[in-house]
C-alpha cells in the first residue's frame, strides 16, 4: 500500500498529456476491473462510456495533470452512482417510525434487525423488533435472540394466535408499539433462496399493513451477477427506499453495490460487516468508491500511461539535486505544481489507502504554500539561484514585498536548505523520497 502511495505521489507532481490511446487503454482496464468485481455488464458499459467521454474532454486536456484528473473522474462517477452524499434514516413526523426489512433468505435481515436496534438504542431511541418471518421454523427465536443481545423489545406472535399470518402479526405489532410508546418499529420479514411471487406478495402486503417510513432491501455483497435481477425483482415487488449491503467483511469487492445502486437508483444506506451486532455502519459512498478503485490497480495503470514522462522528469530532478543545482526557482516550480493540483487534501482523500495520510495532513495549511510562493516571488532571480546572497536587509525587503515577516523568510530559507541537503543525499544514495514534500 505504501508502495502505491509513493507512486501516487510521484504522479501528483507529474504533468503530461494523455493520448486517446492512453484513455482507451485505461478505460479498458477499468472495465475489466469492474467486471472482475461482478458489476453487471450494462452498468459497466454505462459507466465506462461516461468516464471515456469525460476523459477525452477539455476538462482533462486542460488539467495540469491529466492522469490524476482521470482518476478523479472515475472516483466522482463512482461516488455519484453510489448515492453521492450519505443518506440518513427518515423518521416519522408523528407516531413510531417503521422500518421494514426485505431481501432473500440468508441476506442478513434478522441480523440487521438486531444491529439497527442496537445502533438506534445508542442514539436514544426505543426500538421494537417485529417477527414477521413465520416461514422458517426458528426465525422467530432467532429474532428474539438478537433482540435480547441488542437490549430491544421483540414482538413475536404467540403460538396459536396469528401464527402463519405475518401480515396480521405486523398489524398487531403496530398497536403494541403505539401502546408501549416505542418510537421505532423494525419489521423483520421472510426471505426465500430465490425470488418468488408468493414471497413478494407477502412482503407487499406487510408493507401495506404497516405503511413503513423506510423499506430497506438487504443484499449480500457476495451475490455477484445475480444482484441486478434480485434488486429489480424486489423493487417491482415491494419497492424499497434504501439498500443495506451485508457481508462486506467477506472478500466481496463491492460490485453488487454499484450494480444495485445504478439499476434501482436507491441509495445504499448501511453496510453490514460481520456477524456481531456492532459490525455495522452507515454506508459511505466515497469509501466504497475507494474500495472499488483499489481493484485491478486502476491507479497504477493510469500511472503507467504516464511513466515514461515521469521517469524523464524524475531523472532531471535527481540530477539537479546531485549536482547542487536545485534552486529556489525549482522549489517554486514544484510548489506551483502541487498547488495547481487543487486541494491536496481532497486528492488524498480520494486515493485508496491514503486515508491515514489525509488525517495527518489535515493540519497542513494550503495557504502556507501561497505564502511560500509569495516569498520566493519577491526574490530577485539571483537570490533564487543563490540563497546565500540573502543577508538581513535583503530578507527584510523580501518580507515587505511578500507581505510576510522576516521570521517567515528565514524559515523558508532554512527549510529549503534542509530539503536540498536531504534530496542531495537521497539522489546519491537512492532511497526513494518525494521531492517537494520535504518542506511540508
Ligand atoms: P436473513 O435470512 O436475511 O434473516 O439472514 P440472517 O440475518 O439470518 O443471516 C444469515 C447468516 O449470515 C447468519 O449466519 C448471519 O450470522 C450471517 N450474517 C449476517 N450479516 C452478516 C455480515 O455482515 N457478515 C457476515 N460475515 N455474516 C453475516
Ligand atoms: Mg431472517
TrEMBL record:
<keyword id="KW-0733">Signal recognition particle</keyword>
<keyword id="KW-0687">Ribonucleoprotein</keyword>
<feature type="binding site">
    <location>
        <begin position="103"/>
        <end position="110"/>
    </location>
    <ligand>
        <name>GTP</name>
    </ligand>
</feature>
<keyword id="KW-0694">RNA-binding</keyword>
<dbReference type="GO" id="GO:0003924">
    <property type="term" value="F:GTPase activity"/>
</dbReference>
<dbReference type="GO" id="GO:0008312">
    <property type="term" value="F:7S RNA binding"/>
</dbReference>
<comment type="similarity">
    <text>Belongs to the GTP-binding SRP family. SRP54 subfamily.</text>
</comment>
<dbReference type="GO" id="GO:0048500">
    <property type="term" value="C:signal recognition particle"/>
</dbReference>
<dbReference type="GO" id="GO:0005525">
    <property type="term" value="F:GTP binding"/>
</dbReference>
<keyword id="KW-0342">GTP-binding</keyword>
<comment type="subunit">
    <text>Part of the signal recognition particle protein translocation system, which is composed of SRP and FtsY.</text>
</comment>
<feature type="domain" description="SRP54-type proteins GTP-binding">
    <location>
        <begin position="267"/>
        <end position="280"/>
    </location>
</feature>
<feature type="binding site">
    <location>
        <begin position="246"/>
        <end position="249"/>
    </location>
    <ligand>
        <name>GTP</name>
    </ligand>
</feature>
<keyword id="KW-0547">Nucleotide-binding</keyword>
<feature type="binding site">
    <location>
        <begin position="188"/>
        <end position="192"/>
    </location>
    <ligand>
        <name>GTP</name>
    </ligand>
</feature>
<dbReference type="GO" id="GO:0006614">
    <property type="term" value="P:SRP-dependent cotranslational protein targeting to membrane"/>
</dbReference>
<keyword id="KW-0378">Hydrolase</keyword>
<protein>
    <recommendedName>
        <fullName>Signal recognition particle protein</fullName>
        <ecNumber>3.6.5.4</ecNumber>
    </recommendedName>
</protein>
<keyword id="KW-0963">Cytoplasm</keyword>
<comment type="function">
    <text>Involved in targeting and insertion of nascent membrane proteins into the cytoplasmic membrane. Binds to the hydrophobic signal sequence of the ribosome-nascent chain (RNC) as it emerges from the ribosomes. The SRP-RNC complex is then targeted to the cytoplasmic membrane where it interacts with the SRP receptor FtsY.</text>
</comment>
Amino acid at each position: 500500500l505504501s508502495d502505491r502511495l509513493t507512486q501516487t505521489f510521484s504522479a501528483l507532481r507529474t504533468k503530461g498529456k494523455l493520448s486517446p490511446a492512453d484513455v482507451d487503454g485505461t478505460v479498458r482496464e477499468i472495465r475489466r476491473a469492474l467486471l472482475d468485481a461482478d458489476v453487471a455488464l450494462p452498468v459497466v458499459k454505462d459507466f465506462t462510456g461516461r468516464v471515456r467521454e469525460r476523459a477525452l474532454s477539455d476538462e482533462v486536456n486542460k488539467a495540469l495533470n491529466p492522469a490524476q484528473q482521470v482518476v478523479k473522474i472515475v472516483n466522482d462517477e463512482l461516488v455519484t452512482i453510489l448515492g453521492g452524499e450519505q443518506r440518513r434514516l427518515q423518521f416519522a413526523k408523528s407516531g413510531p417510525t417503521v422500518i421494514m426489512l426485505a431481501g432473500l433468505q440468508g441476506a442478513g435481515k434478522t441480523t440487521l434487525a438486531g444491529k439497527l436496534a442496537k445502533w438506534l438504542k445508542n442514539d436514544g431511541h426505543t426500538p421494537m423488533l417485529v417477527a414477521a418471518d413465520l416461514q422458517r421454523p426458528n426465525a422467530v427465536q432467532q429474532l428474539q435472540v438478537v433482540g435480547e443481545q441488542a437490549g430491544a423489545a421483540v414482538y413475536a406472535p404467540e403460538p396459536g394466535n396469528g401464527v402463519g399470518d405475518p401480515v396480521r402479526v405486523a398489524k398487531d405489532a403496530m398497536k403494541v408499539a403505539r401502546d408501549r410508546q416505542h418510537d421505532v418499529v423494525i419489521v423483520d420479514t421472510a426471505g426465500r433462496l430465490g425470488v418468488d411471487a408468493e414471497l413478494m406478495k407477502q412482503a407487499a402486503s406487510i408493507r401495506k399493513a404497516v405503511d413503513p417510513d423506510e423499506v430497506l432491501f438487504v443484499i449480500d455483497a457476495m451475490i455477484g451477477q445475480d444482484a441486478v435481477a434480485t434488486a429489480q425483482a424486489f423493487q417491482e415487488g415491494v419497492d424499497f427506499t434504501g439498500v443495506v449491503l451485508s457481508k462486506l467483511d467477506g472478500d466481496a469487492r463491492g460490485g453488487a453495490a454499484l450494480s444495485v445502486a445504478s439499476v434501482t437508483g436507491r441509495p445504499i444506506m448501511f453496510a453490514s460487516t460481520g456477524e456481531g451486532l456492532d459490525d455495522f455502519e452507515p454506508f459511505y459512498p466515497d469509501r466504497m468508491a475507494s474500495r472499488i478503485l483499489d481493484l485491478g490497480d486502476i491507479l497504477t495503470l493510469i500511472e503507467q500511461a504516464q511513466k515514461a514522462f515521469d521517469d524523464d522528469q524524475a531523472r532531471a530532478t535527481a540530477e539537479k539535486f546531485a549536482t547542487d543545482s536545485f534552486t529556489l526557482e525549482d522549489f517554486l516550480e514544484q510548489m506551483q505544481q502541487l498547488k495547481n493540483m487543487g486541494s491536496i487534501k481532497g486528492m488524498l482523500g480520494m486515493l485508496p489507502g491514503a486515508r491515514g495520510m489525509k488525517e495527518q495532513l489535515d493540519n497542513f495549511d494550503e495557504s502556507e504554500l501561497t505564502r511560500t510562493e509569495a516569498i520566493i516571488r519577491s526574490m530577485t532571480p539571483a537570490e533564487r539561484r543563490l540563497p546565500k546572497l540573502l543577508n538581513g536587509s535583503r530578507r527584510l525587503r523580501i518580507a515587505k514585498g511578500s507581505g510576510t515577516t522576516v521570521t517567515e523568510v528565514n524559515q523558508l530559507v532554512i527549510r529549503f536548505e534542509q530539503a536540498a541537503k536531504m534530496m542531495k543525499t537521497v539522489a546519491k544514495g537512492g532511497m526513494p523520497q518525494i521531492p517537494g514534500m520535504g518542506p511540508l
